Each structure stands twice: as C-alpha cells, then as structure tokens.
Amino acid sequence: MEFLTILYFTYTFIAFYFLFIYILTYIQNKKHIYEIIKPNKIRSLSIVVPCYNEAESIGKNIEAFLASNYEGLKQLIIVDDCSTDNSYEIIKEYARKYSKVIALQTPKNTGRAAGAKNFGAKYVKTELIGFSDADSIPKKDAISKMVGFFNDEKVGAITSRVFVENPKNFLERIQSIEYKIMAFTRKLLGFLDSIYVTNGPLSIYRKKAYDEVGGFDMKNMTEDIEITWHFVSKGWKVKMSIPARVYSVVPKTVKSWFHQRIRWNVGGIQTVAKYKKKIAQCGMLGYFIIPFFVLSWFIGLTGLFFLTYRISKYLITKYLVTKYSIVAQVAVLELNDFSFSPSILFFFGILLFTLGFAYTFVALGHSKEKGWLIGHSLYDIFIYSFFYLLMYPPLLIISFYKYFRGYNTW
Amino acid sequence: MLKSNKHIFWEALIITIVIFLMGLFLGMMIEAGHSNEINNFYLASEANLIDGMALSQISGGSHISCETIKQKNIDFANKVYEEAKLLEKYESSQKLTENLKIIHKKYDLLRTLAWISNSNSLEQCQNYDLVIYLYEYNSENITKKAIQNVWSKILLDVKEENEDMILIPIASDQDITSLEVLMEKYGVSSFPALVINNQEVIYSLEGSDQIKSLLN
User: Fold this and answer.
1) How many Cβ pairs closer than 8 A exist between chain A and B?
2) Which of B12, B205, B208 is facing A24, going by the closest CB pair?
3) A139-149 pLDDT, tens per residue?
4) CB spacing of B95 vs A344 below 8 angstroms
5) pLDDT tens-digit map of A358-393
6) What is the rounded CA–CA span in Å between residue B187 and residue A34?
7) Architecture of the CATH domain B13-212
8) Position A33 in a domain
C-alpha cells in the first residue's frame, strides 16, 4: 500500500473516532444537554472583570451583572489594567453608585488579561470566583444556571455558552456559527470530563480550586485554556452549562480575527508544551485532552496537506496538458477526462463529510435553550463548512512558526 | 446526571474499527470485482491473440487473404485498446490490492505479442499501418505524464481518421524481456516513443500531421 494511502487511512480513522465519540456522547446524553441543577445551597460569588480600554462596553458588562438574579453574587470586582481611555473613571462611577461594585487598578499595565484577573482575585473572599471579559454581556439568569453544578464537590469550574453579540457582517455571522458549534462540542466533552477551556466571557471557579492551581499563568497567551488544564491535572472536574448564555463581541475585520486566532493557537501550543509530560497521566488530561489536542493538529495539517497536494497536482497536470494540447492542436478536454471510478478512500471521505455536516446541523439545532433553531442561512453554513474551516490548518502552521520565533504579544 | 461516560471511548473505538473493517472489506470486494472483470476480458483477448497468431502462421501457404488478416488484427487491437481504457480507469481507484498491476503487466505482454504477430503480418501484407506507442507506466514525473496524456489524444485522433491503422500502446517499464529485446532491435532509447510501421521511431510529437505523413 502506498504511503499516501496509509496516511489517508490514519487520518480518516482518527477523524471517524472523534466523530463517533461526539455522536455517541450526544445520543447517550441528549436528555441532559439543557439540564440545570438546582443549587443545594447559596454559594457566595465574586466576579472579576479585567478591563483595558473598554470604555464603550464596560458599563454594559457591569449593568448585566448587577441585573443578575443570583442572590449569592456578593462582589463585582472590575480591574482596570491602566487603560489609556476613561474606563477607570466609568468603573469608579459605578463603584460609587453600587456597593457591590469594586473598582481596582493595577499598579502598572500587566499587558494581558491574566495579570488583571490575578490582581483582582487577591481581593476575593467568597466560595466561588467568576471571571468575565469586559466586552461580554451575560443574561441575568446565566450565573443561576451555572452554580448548581458545584453541588458536586469534585467540580472545580463551570463555563457558560458564548453567543456572538449582534452578528452583522459576514465574518461575524460565520463566527456566530463557529461559536455555536464550539459550545455544543464543549458541552459534549463535558459529559466526558474533557472540557479543555473555560471561556473568558463567563466562567466560575471554586475558589479553593483556583487557589490550588495558583491562579492564571501570566506567561500563557490563552490563560483560560491553561487554567482549565491545570484544574483537570489536579483532579478537578470542569462542566459546562449550556443554558447559561453570555453574549460577546467578536473580531469584525479579517486582520483582528487573524490576530485573535494566532493568539489562541500559540496559547494552545504553549499549553501543550507545558503539559506534554502529563500525557498518559493525570486522568482525562493525559488520556484524552492532550492526545485530542495533538491529534486535532494532525488531522488539520494532514487534511491541508492532502488538499494542497491533490489540488496542486491536478492544476499542474491540467496546465501542462492544456499547454501541450494547444501546441499539438488536439482537444483540451475529452469525454475520457470525465471518467471516474470512485475508490474506497472516496467513500470514506464522503461518509466523513456527511457525518461532519450532519453534526454541524445538530450543533446549530441546539442553539436555543430548548427546541431546535438552525438560525443561519444555508449559504453561511456552506461557507463555514467548505472555506472557513479550511483556514484552521494554515493558521496553525503560522502559529507554530510564531511560537518557535518566541511570539508573545497579546 | 454526572454519571461516567468513559465507556463511550471504547464504544466509539469499536464502531470506528467496525466501520473501517467494513469499508476495507467493501473496498477489497470492489477491487476484486474490477480485477475479475478485467481478467475475463484478458482471457478472451488472449484467446483472440493466439487465434490471430495461428492465423498468421498458416497464412503463408494458405488461401487466407491479407484483408482477412488485417481485419482480424485491427479488431483485436481495437478490443484491447478499449479494455486498456477500462483497466486504466479501474487502476486509478485501486488502493488496497495489487491485482490490477499484475493484470496490466499481462496486458503489456499480450500487446508485445500482438506487436510481434503484427510485424509478421505486416511483412507479408503491408495493407495497414502499425503504430506502437511506448510509454512509461510507473513514471511520477508530472511533465512526462502530461506529455503522454497529450500523445494519447493525438494518437486517438489519428486512429479515428485512419481505419487501417493499428495502435498498440505498451508500457515500456514493466520488466518484460521480450519487449526490451524488441525495443533494442528498433533502437528505442527514451520514452514516450512511437514506432511507426517498424521503421520510424519518433521521440518528439508536435501534432497528428507528423504521424499521418509517415503512414502508408
């Protein structure tokens, strides 16, 4: 068997395996996807919000938390990371008006969200500690729908579901699809105790767990991924509450989107590099999360390789055949050129793609709290499935390059 | 609610293995079906060739006309040409087994025998044209493959315009000793190459007119 065929089979096998994990998890836990657990007691909670030049959005964020119906919310700590706009003045104004709001400012700009988060966490004395991004808007019942998971003493972190706030342009609409699929996938991974990230827009941690891992890693570009892995490595469970909705803004331009994705990828690489020795150790972290992350890279890069190889070989051959055909004055295309005999690799590819496409629809179908709502045009779903996802592997390659070049810019 | 779902990893693995094995089995069945189909064609063609060779052996002192020999050879060459196209199509989708590669080699041997047989007939009758197209089967060179693709088109065009022409494409790199001897006899040194009526060897083909000018 040829090397490329073996590589393709390996690629297909891994992709099928992951897909069947998702499908089985979905089938066996369908009834629990929207489950909300009633808290067995009111746990005190502080929310820490890092803020850097967020004058436009910080007010909405504070008001959204103040409107929360969770009675255990004691403090809303807003940490200004030495903004150059009037963010801090706005925060102080809210602090004057509402006793729950505490305005803090770091002694000097820390350069990343982890710095401001750790700074704010020092002031937290409650049983739970939550973190949110300054540009995110949680629904008033979001926290209430999350905290019940802490009834299980082994649960160290709960994450919410992020929706794109008012997606208008094309890129935002595509990211809206992406966020819904990511959230659905994360929920499924939660049933396997394999959630690998607690998102920035709204996640709540048990303070004991947070203290045990020593807070966020200042060196990591994606501190929310790193801290989640740290929790899992210490034996804490991480869960997701899909009915807990939080709205967040996403990059509006390709440039800002590119920058964000490079940061996410480099952060992911940094995290894998940090925890690589934990492979086959530390429960689900070593047995699933790390291999899952690394194999996802393999799938992405192998897929890109196949696509590039096939397309470039086809185009070069077509170009040469056309060129020589014109010189020789023979037909450029003949009926035989359209003759096609599908191989088993083709059938595997079709099956994989069909299952993947069906998964996309099921994930989008679970965008609503209850019931089904696709909520996107077929055109957008088509672009997402056929083009947007193809951007992942090249971004990964660039990210690897930047990682090895020591990229460390927030 | 927070029940363990770790069994899903094993279940997914088993389903993946089952799907994979079913896929591989199905793939092997399809490829075996293709091999059988081609093999049946081959056996029929082989019988036809032997019949043709026998005919050329006895034609020297018999009443068999050159027209009959010509027609027999043309029919045989056309049939093998069509089978070659089918073989090529199936080969492009063969990923698991090597059967078709072996059949391809058998066909090349058959076509080599057809070349030898036609050489004898051509010496006696000279009432048709024989074009042997020698190409590289195992080449990974994209430029060479593109050139061979265009040569095939040119030859097909010429063949369609000349009913009295026999076209025999043979892979030159199949390690067939008799073919190597023949190529040496006609001084074929590089590929692709055309041997026209066992007299002219062409290594550079610019169009159908070039071939037509060398035909009878």
Assistant:
1) 119
2) B12
3) 999 999 999 99
4) yes
5) 999 999 988 765 555 677 888 999 999 989 999 999
6) 79
7) 3-Layer(aba) Sandwich (3.40)
8) no
